[in-house]
Every structure is written in structure tokens, then in C-alpha cells.
From TrEMBL:
InterPro entries per the UniProt record, alphabetical: Aminotransferase_I/II_large, DapL/ALD1, PyrdxlP-dep_Trfase, PyrdxlP-dep_Trfase_major, PyrdxlP-dep_Trfase_small
Protein name per its UniProtKB record: Aminotransferase class I/classII large domain-containing protein
Phylogenetic classification of the source organism: Eukaryota, Viridiplantae, Streptophyta, Embryophyta, Tracheophyta
Cofactor dependency: pyridoxal 5'-phosphate
Any one GO molecular-function label of the UniProt entry: pyridoxal phosphate binding
Similarity-based family: Belongs to the class-I pyridoxal-phosphate-dependent aminotransferase family. LL-diaminopimelate aminotransferase subfamily.
Taxonomic superkingdom: Eukaryota
UniProt-listed PANTHER family: AMINOTRANSFERASE (PTHR43144)
Pfam families registered for this protein in UniProt: Aminotran_1_2
All copies of domain Aminotransferase class I/classII large, residue ranges: 42-396
Any one GO biological process: systemic acquired resistance, salicylic acid mediated signaling pathway
Keyword vocabulary terms for this entry: Aminotransferase, Pyridoxal phosphate, Transferase
Length: 406
């Protein structure tokens, strides 16, 4: 058959519903066009949710040791268990879910939260309905399109209260809830989550709780895990990751928790079905090298180093929040999260993004990339080296503050 001629295979119709350009591609195109006009400009990105600080040496040394052991007869290991190392699952429970009733048998270690979410949605199958916060992590919307699932956005309670109005929310099979939320940077309070759990129970829905930014939570009235909420073990699956916790965005390691008490309408165990899906799609679990890194990251010694890096990003967020306040702009988030949700008025979020890029060579994410209610906002990421954050602020000062010498 010659190259380019069509075959008789029908294209998966769901693929035509997925956007070919996810938001990070759209941002990359913006930067490419900008550099074509200003080839010598140094663009500072406040747009991307990727870790920037090096992984602590205490973690990489442990990984190095493990890698060398693979070259020995005693240390070599082949296929792993699909659920991940028992020792890592135990450490996850001890370090992050102490006293919350999570069992190691309920944890599935994977190649990251995105992998967990796609496998979970694959398990639930096509045709079901899923509710989303507006705005939220845009990948979910695309995954649902891929798996032929139907999305509804939950309306917010009010302009400045980002928790959905559950009193008017439709019943859906699943509710994807991200807290602290990407992109708004808002962490739901425990009271909010109690409402969410009782709403899910009343409607017979399952919550997919995305907690990948939980390490940033500092307010005691906010939860780091949905399992801090009574009754959540009956209706909630939690997904988390080492990506934002320990800078593993490139290493790839995450986990899902499926409590044994979450069951389908026919009483069958969701956990048992997830075993099937994982055995079929990731039979040997996550890379053993990445898992060695995860084990080290959660050790009492390295965990302190991990938290120092989170604190670095939080300080970045405070610097940015201070600057936005001096411009008279209203900003949300940035406290229990690495994201700031910056309110803009009078122009579209893409126009403001383009203006910042053109005039300050600073890239932000247009809020509209994250859902219809994202219009009117920019998402600002506090992931960055300190000197870049400071320089971004100086450049923004120059275009946002009235000229002092005028
Ligand atoms: N969930 C949310 C809300 C995210 O923002 C991201 C990545 O930015 C992910 C999941 C994916 O994380 P991972 O790198 O573990 O796949």
C-alpha cells in the first residue's frame, strides 16, 4: 500500500471531539510566534504548571543506589506488581494518610495522576455523565471526549465563591473535583467537601478527587485529602502524584486510592474492577526506578527537603500576589496552591495574555483555556526560579504601574 492512501478502518469518532491542541500547545505556539518577531527576547513563563526546582539530592542519591543495585544478582528485579511496591504504598499511607483509614491494598501506584485518571475514566466506560468545576484542569474534558462520556459544568455559587452551587446541580454519574483547584488555586474548605460528599451520597455519584496540589494546603479549615471528610470512603476515589509534591513531572509517579467501600449500582466492587483495568493496561505497575525515588521522597529525611521546595513556590506566589495587589488587581488562590487566579476586566483573557507577552515578554495562561467561566481571568503559575519571578514582576511593574518620573 502506498504511503498516505486510506485504509478501510473507521476512525474512532470520539477522537474528532478531542481538541488537537491542548492548552500547553496553544501556549507554545504563542511563544513561537512571539520569538519570530522578537528573536532576542527572553520570555519568562508564568504559564506552565511544571516543577522548576531540582529534585533534592537525598532522593536522587537513593535512586542512584537503586539503579546500581539492578546490576547485581541480589538487587536485580524484573516485572513488578501492578499495584506498585508494598513498601511504597505503606509509606504513602504512613506519611500522607495517617489515621484516615486508607489501606495499602486500596492504593495503585502508577506513572502519574494523568495515567490514573485516564485508567479510571476508561474503567467507567462510555456514555456516562461527569460533572466538572468551571474552570478546571482541561485534560479531563478531553479524556471524557476520548472515552465518549458527557460533561456538564457546575455553576459557581457566586462570582467570587468558586465552590459549585450544589443546590442547583444536576445529578451525574461521576464528579471530578480538583482541590486545590487548577487553575483557580482555591482549596475547598472541609465544610465545602462535607457538602460535596453528602451531595454525591444523595445522588449515588462517585467523586474523582484530584489532590495533586494537596502538599500546598496550609489552612487548617482545608483538607489535604478527601478522606478527612466523614463518609468519603463510600463515595470518593482520590488521585495524587509526586509531580508537584517532589518535582517528579519528568520522573513520572502517582497513585490512586479506591476504597473497598466504593461500589457500583449492582453492588460490585470498583476496586476489583480497577485491579482488572490496571492488570490489563499496566501489568508491571510504575517503573521500579521511579518508585525508588518515591520511597526516598517520603522518607522522614527527604520529606523535609521536599517541603522546603513547596515553600519556595509558595514564597514565589506571595511575591506575585503582592505585585498584583500593587496594580490594584483582584487575585484569588496562591495560598494553598501554586496558582493565582487573576481577575482582569475589559478585555478577553487571550488579549491580556498577548499584551503581557508583547509588552513584558511574560507569558500567562488565558483563563478561558480552563473552561467557559475562566474568561475574565489569567492563571499565573508560581512554579519558577526566584530570579525569574522577580524579573517577571519588574517587567510587569513597568507596564502596570504609572510612570514614577512622569
Ligand atoms: N491533575 C491536575 C489537576 C494537574 O494540574 C496535573 C498536571 O498539571 C495532573 C493531574 C497530572 O499530573 P501528573 O504529572 O501526575 O500526571
Amino acid at each position: 500500500m502506498t504511503k498516505g492512501s486510506s485504509v478501510g478502518v473507521k476512525r474512532n469518532a470520539n477522537l474528532s471531539n478531542c481538541e488537537s491542541e491542548l492548552f500547553f500547545w496553544k501556549l507554545r505556539l504563542k511563544v513561537q510566534s512571539h520569538l519570530a518577531i522578537y528573536p532576542n527576547s527572553k520570555v519568562i513563563s508564568l504559564a506552565v504548571g511544571d516543577a522548576t526546582e531540582p529534585i533534592p539530592q537525598s532522593i536522587t542519591c537513593a535512586v542512584e543506589k537503586y539503579v546500581h543495585s539492578l546490576s547485581t544478582r541480589e538487587g536485580f528485579s524484573g516485572y513488578g506488581i501492578h499495584q506498585g511496591l508494598e513498601s511504597l504504598r505503606t509509606r504513602i499511607v504512613e506519611q500522607l494518610y495517617n489515621g484516615l483509614g486508607v489501606k495499602t491494598s486500596e492504593i495503585f501506584v502508577s506513572d502519574g495522576a494523568k495515567g490514573c485518571l485516564s485508567r479510571l475514566l476508561m474503567m467507567f466506560g462510555s456514555g456516562l455523565t461527569l460533572a466538572l468545576q468551571d474552570a478546571t484542569y482541561p485534560v479531563i474534558n478531553q479524556l471524557c471526549s476520548l472515552f465518549g462520556q458527557n460533561i456538564v459544568y457546575l455553576a459557581k455559587k457566586s462570582e467570587d465563591d468558586f465552590f459549585p452551587d450544589l443546590s442547583n446541580a444536576p445529578h451525574t454519574d461521576l464528579i471530578y473535583f480538583c482541590s486545590p483547584n487548577n487553575p483557580t488555586g482555591i482549596a475547598a474548605t472541609k465544610k465545602n467537601l462535607e457538602e460535596l460528599v453528602s451531595f454525591a451520597k444523595k445522588n449515588g455519584s462517585i467523586i474523582l478527587y484530584d489532590a495533586v496540589y494537596s502538599a500546598f494546603v496550609e489552612d487548617i479549615d482545608c483538607a489535604k485529602s478527601i478522606y478527612e471528610i466523614p463518609g468519603a470512603r463510600e463515595v470518593a476515589i482520590e488521585v495524587n502524584s509526586f509531580s508537584k509534591l517532589a518535582g517528579f513531572t519528568g520522573v513520572r509517579l502517582g497513585w490512586s486510592i479506591i476504597p473497598e467501600s466504593v461500589v457500583f449500582a449492582n453492588g460490585k466492587s470498583v476496586l476489583q474492577d480497577f485491579h482488572k483495568v490496571t492488570l490489563l493496561t499496566a501489568p508491571a505497575g510504575a517503573s521500579s526506578i521511579a518508585q525508588a525515588g518515591g520511597l526516598a521522597a517520603l522518607s522522614s529525611e527527604s520529606f523535609k527537603d521536599v517541603l522546603k521546595i513547596i515553600e519556595h513556590y509558595k514564597e514565589n506566589a506571595r511575591i506575585l500576589l503582592k505585585a498584583f495587589a500593587s496594580y490594584g488587581l483582584e487575585a484569588f488562590g496562591g495560598r494553598n496552591s501554586p496558582y493565582i487566579w487573576l481577575k482582569i476586566a475589559g478585555k478577553s483573557s487571550e488579549d491580556v495574555c498577548d499584551e503581557w507577552l508583547e509588552r513584558a515578554h511574560v507569558l500567562a495562561s488565558p483563563g478561558v483555556f480552563f473552561g467557559p467561566a475562566g474568561e475574565g481571568f489569567l492563571r499565573i503559575s508560581a512554579f519558577g526560579h526566584r530570579e525569574d519571578i522577580i524579573e517577571a514582576v519588574e517587567r510587569l511593574d513597568a507596564i502596570m504601574l504609572p510612570c514614577k518620573s512622569c
